[in-house]
Amino acid sequence: MRIKLFVTTYLIALSTYAQTDIPSIYIEKAKDHSALFIGQLEPWFISQQWATHPYWEDTKFHEGDICFEGRLYHNIKLRYNLFSNFVSVTSPEKQIAVTPDMNKISYFTIEGKYFIPFNGLYARIEYDGNRLSLIHYRKKNIAPQVIVNNTFVKNLYVSDKYYIYKGDSIFPVASKGNLIKLFPDYKKQIKDFCTKKRLSFTKRDRDNAINECAMFIDQLLCNNDNGHDMTSEGNYINSQLSKLLPPPYTQPESAKVTDAEIDKVLQTKETVRDIIAYNMYKDGGSIDSTLFVEENNTVATPGVESIDIIREAHALKEIQVIGITSKIGSAQTGMESFRPALMKNIPLALGESDIMKMAMTLPGVKSMGEASSGLNVRGSSSDQNLILYNNGIVYNPMHLFGLFSAFNADMVSETKLYKGGIPSQYGGRVSSVMDIKSKFADKNEWHAQASIGLLTSKALVEAPIIRDRVLLMLSGRTTYSDWMLKTLPSKSGYKNGSADFWDLGGSLGIILSNHHRINAYGYYSHDNFSFTREDEYSYNNGSISMEWKGQYGDNVSSSLSVGYDRYDYNNEERTYPDEASSLSFSIDEYFAKGKATISSIENNKLTIGFDGMQYNIMPGRFTPVGDQSLVSASVLNNDKANEYAVYAEDEFTHKKLTLTGGVRYNIFKSTTPGKERTYSSPDIRLSMNYAIKENQSIKGGFNTLHQFIHKVSNTAIISPTDTWILSNSRVKPQSGMQVSAGYYITTNDQQYEFGAELYYKRMSHYLTYRGGAQLTMNPKLEDDVITAQGKAYGIELQAKKMYGKLDGWISYTYSKAHLRQDDLSAALLVNGGNWYDADYDSPHEFKFVANYKFTRRFSISLNGNYFSGRPITLPTGKFYNKEEDKMIPYYTDRNASRLPDYMRMDASFNVETGHHITNKLKCWWSFGVYNILGRKNAYSIYYKSENDVLKCYRLSIFGAPIPFLSFNFKF
Amino acid sequence: MKRVITNITAVILSIIVTTSCIDEYEPNIPDNEQDVLVFEGAITQNSNCFIYISKVTGLNDVTAKSYVSDPSFYIIDENNNEEPLKIILMGYERGFKLSIPKLETTQKYRIKIVAEGETYITDPLQVLDSEPIDSVGFRYNESTDDVDILVSTHPSVQGETQYFECTYYETWEINTPKQTAWYYDADSFTIIKNTGQIPSRGWCAKQNIKKIIYSNKEYNNGDIKKHRIYSVPNKDNRFNTLYHTTITQSRISKEEYEYRYICEKQSLNMGGLFTPMPSELPSNIHCTSNPSKKCSGFISLRGTSKKNYVFVSKEEAKHKDHFQILTSKEETSETSEYRLHLMGYHPYIIEFESIDGTIRIFDWILDKWVNCFNPYWGCNTTEKPEFWP
Q1: Euclidean distance between CA atoms B54 and B148, whole angstroms
Q2: How far is CA A161 from the centre of its chain?
Q3: How far is A576 from chain B (nearest CA, A)?
Q4: pLDDT tens for residues A799-847?
């Protein structure tokens, strides 16, 4: 009804407000200063940031007419942005795109088709017949982000509706049935026509079918009314437009310039000011049009002296911020992307948004339980996953025994986790890659953000030191659990313990030009904890890097980065002053990486690059602590090596098929004295994505990978007692292979996505612990480890609801991971040389994350986890040991038993205040409960001999519900 | 407000900490590993030795005793010459004392054991040269109030990582400045007086059961300097007068070190955040008559052990006057003398004459202090050892 009234009113208005052709002399003289070309510059549409364009048909400017202020401008180049509802026209002289005031546009035509106001937008008149007209109403709304070329891009979904205008009424039509219902007298003719023409009313073919039918029915109506007035009904719009008469021409005030003045202005601009060209890109990366911007950041705008440039100033009615992304578009299998800042409400780590915990909500990603550092991805050990933070490697990504990740989520822009199809640019680990990128500060305004919780606080500052040029972002986080632990009663056992951490992060972006930019990143985290006064553990992660990014023309881009990473730990033991000692370990790395992407060949995107890395590992330094210590200082010889890699990868797209093939050639050279050895090996990376339909795709992938640095540990988790060793003449590189396949489907509105992925992987030369071996301060560590081969396989099923009041995902994973000792000729074989379950094997895994928004202010989040208990080695009996003079447990087969299944659910209630658009201070509270079920999930089970009786104990990290509260604000 | 916030946070943290809990648990464990034999022992050159044969029993088996009957032992040299080892003594708790012939340090030997119808043979074993102990020392540890006994030694090959085992034999003198002749006779349920002469000095001796293992890998140039072997609380009666300990050191193989290390660790509390995961026991013995039959354990050959000793005086140990910590009968709620006796108390009665007649001071003292009053009750001997100063 509203639509009908609107169109009718509009048409009545047209009839009373006649149009006039603009005198050609006006445009000839005023040129870019004509009234039509005075307005805001068209906001940038950067095609690289969008999967689809916001315009009606395409991004091109088309010939058309436009009725502006009652004057009809002919042969104007224009395009219509549906998403933001504006028309942009290019000025005749400098070809600058500006957006005239939409309130002054009565209608416009593109390629001969009329666009008239309709339901808040402009609808196209597809057919304007004698008895009826066909109106095509198109709408573009924001859709979940998708991944194109491994990058998050914005996305729009298109909805088309058709209306028949007949007899002063408007009827929506979408199918043959609608038409028959509307014209019941011509039922048979319509049916026959559709059959004869083989018309289909599916979404893809609906446009043509309805058009053809409309013309046919109009013809039928005309034939039936033969002899009657042919202009009485349908051709109403055309008839109204043709009746419009031009009012007397008056030049707009803003455009009242004389010829002389125009010449003067233009001469001044060209001679005095430097003009910088800003390209606007079409889909595919080619330049669509060019903006001319003065160097002082104003625009050489026709009709005005200067105006501030406005970048991406889309006035959106509403954007739904979505942290979940669709997998349909990316070529890789097993690729997960998320933006932590957009998922702040998920109750993951005692009220704090946390990247690592977020990753663990994804199928196939898990840890060894609470208080466990590191990730286990698709049946891999924690050291087989490469964790990159701004290109630097992070070896221990967790704080406080794994309770918090070492990265401040507010600082993180985007995280990509490659579980399966790993691009050629990554190497050095045999299982997965997690690539974490920092955010940059706002280009124009200062912002600050802070969070205060019961255990941690953090702050972040965004500072555009030079607007649009130099952007600085700094973040810091710390915990104050240390002093609070001291308030606990003595019987808790933690009164004399301490635990604290802090981390600092920063990013500096220097925008040299629109095509060149330098980024610098810095990161440092520190952990320090002790269980008693006599021991102390500390570890640090640090990274500093610099990256230069360049764009050369439309089709070539490059990046070059150099950096330095460090991981070290230091453990002190002071129980006996004469034995008080400190054990320290460190890894230092220098790296250089270069990458170029070339997309000049149609349908191909070629990526080439190199990596270089120098390792320097200090395996152990043992030093006395205190004056009374009698310990002699000793240092093991450093492990040194260089790793190089070159790679090339091409992404070929043809219609529905995307194929990616790459080769990475690794050269590793151990330079440790006495252990020199060079290894070289190629890695093959293949992936395929075939779009069965617009919303369905199948993918496949095949990877081979090599790893030259190995963690040697006899604990289940990454801990500050682990030792890392490099491949050398005695330690071979680990090698891995993975095959994976997946099927994905989304609903038409992209609200729901369903996916299934299968994988199978093999690996060899994996280092595992040998019972009784001393792993620290061991100069011949390679003699004390066992090499094993591994295999893992599984299926991951996931369903996502991408947006709406309720969003989130649910997943189930079945997976297995096995190990077997490599050298079957060894005297002592683990489990007799048979395959056995790896420490991180967990066959069944069920997870869900759900957020429900009651209003924009209040929401509730749930996070659930269930997985099978991990394998452990339990004794099968006991025997009397004379040396210990007691019964001790008898362990035989490794990992023959399992911990009880793990189940946990967390809930949080979130309150966001300050939604008012003028309110700069945004606050939100999060109240919640971690482990709301209060389940005592076992971290480990162990036996203890007590009076010749072996008693079994279960250690739980969180055995009860843990409430949490955090307050966050941003301005 | 600040106080409220502090209290709330303290309560929540308390919940976090106290909910990190350890509780007893009953896992489902297969019991198909029972009756596996575990062989342990060290054969010392030119000496007698014990080999222990244990049988793996179920975790919930409360009897916990399972003996192996009539095993036989053999030693096989590199030429496959087999010589039986004579069982001198079938000891308590599955130990078999064997007579060992002279062994060549240049040869490798295997030990064969026939038990319960199956034959078990070790990997080839070689006698390892024992290293001398450079010195034995001690140090009073202020932080623990213990006296630490320290050993310094060096490897036979400079720079080589070597592994050692040691035992110690303690002797200490008990001097009784105050004596009591009274004791509780549990047969007659009465306190009676010993009419014999009461000596004022006595000596106690104890051989430690647990052998201590260590290596030189954490020391510069491989020389072990002042490595702590064990500690004795300075309040202990060992430091009543003079304390002596003899350390006997043997060199062991890396494999044996690891076997012993695992046994030691697995008998302790495991399952912590950074504690190693339990692992299967390494073994150097296999069932040859039935390769599928599991067995475990470690048997080693030893060279001659080397000894060294140290004396520690009462003053050096900073031994405290133990009379200050007497526990009197009045301090206990027990009234039955027999029950006090069972609890380890002894009567402490001192008689002396006064103008009012004979006065008796009567108390009950704990067993650990009884040596101070009557060496007969706690000492091995009242004869002074030959080496005693």
Answers
A1: 33
A2: 32
A3: 8
A4: 988 877 888 889 999 999 999 988 766 666 788 788 999 988 989 999 9
A517: tokens are 């930019």
Give the number of other CB atoms < 10 A from CB of residue B58. Answer: 17
**Residue A897 to residue B27, Cβ atoms within 8 A:** yes
B-contacting residues of A 812-831, CB under 8 Å?
827-828, 830-831
Can you count the helices (H) and strands (E) in chain A? 9, 57
- CA–CA dist A347, A928 (Å, integer): 7
C-beta separation of A658 from A652 below 8 A: yes
- CA A580, CA A962: separation in Å to the nearest integer? 37
Q: Which helix (H) or strand (E) holds B7?
A: helix B2-19
| A and B: number of Cβ contacts within 8 A | 269
Q: Please tell me the pTM assigned to this model.
A: 0.67
**Do A772 and B275 make contact, defined as CB atoms within 8 angstroms?**
no
CB contact under 8 A, A943 and B141: no
B263–chain A Cβ distance below 8 A for any pair = yes
- Give contacts of B 161-180 with A, CB under 8 A: 161
Convert the pLDDT of each residue in A86-144 to its tens digit: 899 988 777 778 888 888 888 889 988 888 888 888 899 888 888 888 889 998 887 77
Contact criterion met (CB < 8 Å) for A371 and B273: yes
Task: Quickly list DSSP for A565-607.
Answer: EEEEEEEEE-SSGGG-EEEEEEEEEEEEEEEEEE--STTEEEE
Best probe of the A interface among B273, B275, B287, B298, by most A CBs < 10 A, is B273
B92 touches chain A (CB under 8 A): no
Q: Do A578 and B141 touch (CB under 8 A)?
A: yes
Q: What angle do CA B233, B235, B238 make, to 5 degrees?
A: 80
By Cβ distance, the residue of B21, B150, B279 closest to A873 is: B279
| Chain mean pLDDT for chain A | 78
Asked if residue A828 lies in contact with residue A805, where contact means CB atoms within 8 angstroms, the answer is no
Q: Which residues on A lie below 8 Å from B18 (Cβ)?
A: 492
Neighbouring CB atoms inside 10 A of A449's CB total: 18
The residue with greater pLDDT, A689 or A748, is: A689
Helix (H) / strand (E) containing B340? helix B337-342
Chain A residues touching B57 at Cβ < 8 A: 877-879
The residues pairing with B346 across neighbouring beta strands, listed in sequence order, are: B365
Report how far residue A571's alpha carbon sits from residue A538's, in angstroms, rounded to the nearest whole number: 6
A537 to chain B: closest CA residue = B274
Cα-based torsion angle of the residue sequence B194, B197, B203, B209 in order, rounded to the nearest 10 degrees: -30
Residues in Cβ contact with A98 at an 8 Å cutoff, skipping those fewer than 6 apart: A37, A38, A39, A40, A41, A42, A88, A89, A90, A91, A301, A302
3-state secondary structure of A119: coil
Instruction: Please state, in angstroms and rounded to a whole number, the distance separating the CA atoms of residues A579 and B149.
Output: 12
Cα–Cα nearest to B155, from B212, B106, B211, B221 = B221
Helix ranges (H only) for A176-287 are: 176-182, 187-197, 206-224, 236-243, 259-272
Contacts of A883 (CB under 8 A, 6+ apart): B40, B209, B210, B211, B260, B263, B264
CA distance A12 to A897: 82
Tell me which of B65, B274, B292 to substitute to probe the interface with A (most A C-beta atoms closer than 10 Å): B274
Which tokens is B62 given? Answer: 């409360």
